[in-house]
Amino acid sequence: MKKPLLQFTEKGIYCDAAKVYLDPWKPVDHAIISHGHADHSRWGHKKYITHHTNVPIIKHRLGDINVSGRAFNEPFMINNVKFSLHPAGHIIGSSQIRVEHQGEVWVFTGDYKTEDDGIAVPFEPIRCHTFITECTFGLPAFKWTPQDEVMHNINTWWLQNQAEGKTSILFGYSLGKAQRLLKYLDPSIGKIYTHGAIENMTEVIRPMIDFPVTTRITRETKKEELLGNIVLAPPSAHGSTWIRKMVPYVTASASGWMAFRGARRRRAIDKGFVLSDHCDWHSLLTAIEATGATKVITTHGYTDIFSRYLRTIGYDARTEKTQYEGELAEMESKSETEAAV
């Protein structure tokens, strides 16, 4: 029996014909990496291939690794298997991985979104036979508000807090979400301060993107300097000694999970803004349809519900277990947060 072009193994998604893994979660010899988030780019592989804008990002995160960069739509061969990287629209440097061999084409998305955020290269539908998709927000309840409206609401919230003499603290993952927020914060309102983890990552990305000026918070920063201004911080800073020194403050989180009633309360956040770097329900269905694929494999999120729905509308759909976590992965550990202070 012919082996599938891509197989799900204990180490990750494996292409036996090329002897290469896609976003493996255990150390392997040869890995193609879709993007820089921790659940997709892990330390310990002997060789990495990724999009060239993701090279400095994963080097910053993983240290001295053997990595080579490729351009979008640039074919490269490994053991007679044709690979290419294509825009995923998830975060800067994020790619879908196209795999072609003996007339068969598979596409692995990693993580993706179809809304153009003005930072990542916008998602590009790729024709294929089999499409491997996340479904982090694969429920009909998830329907995103356009980014312009969300950012207007965030800047209005900042202004209101400023009028009350309070510091605004906005939580977003240090890679991707923080830069998306930063790009559209209005610096005419006040100064934009950053937690060290976010500032470190933004320094890596700043040569590629035009961002407003930011000020790193240090031990010397006085809370009086922060009043009326905004602080970008990773979610793991919430409740830390670092943040308790900023009283009086108001907190907010920018996440797709803020669409769920009760999510803000459970996280003890004052305000929630629904902003995700993943597809909502409609975007997932639109993206899948645009590929022309007849087979769909769901890897993380509401996998069983989403794949069951896909089968009802005519797709050959199934789920596979992986160690990808979607937006749940976009949380630094306390140790990472403290190390960056």
Characterization of the model:
The chain is of the alpha/beta class and 341 residues long. It has two domains: 7-141 and 277-333, Ribonuclease Z/Hydroxyacylglutathione hydrolase-like (Metallo-beta-lactamase, Chain A, 4-Layer Sandwich), CATH 3.60.15; 147-273, Rossmann fold. 24% of the residues lie in helices and 24% in strands. It contains ten helices and 19 strands. It has helices spanning 55-62, 147-163, 177-184, 196-205, 223-226, 241-244, 263-266, 281-291, 303-312, 334-340, and strands spanning 7-8, 13-15, 20-22, 30-32, 47-51, 67-70, 76-78, 81-87, 95-101, 104-108, 130-135, 167-171, 192-194, 215-216, 230-233, 249-254, 271-273, 295-301, 316-319. The strands form three sheets. A seven-stranded mixed beta sheet has the order 7-8-9-10-11-18-19, with helices on one face. A six-stranded mixed beta sheet has the order 1-2-3-4-5-6, with no helix packed on it. Strands 14-13-15-12-16-17 form a six-stranded parallel beta sheet. Helix 1 (55-62) links the parallel strand 5 (47-51) and strand 6 (67-70). The protein is globular and about 70 Å long. The N and C termini lie far apart (55 Å). Residues 331-339 have low confidence and may be disordered.
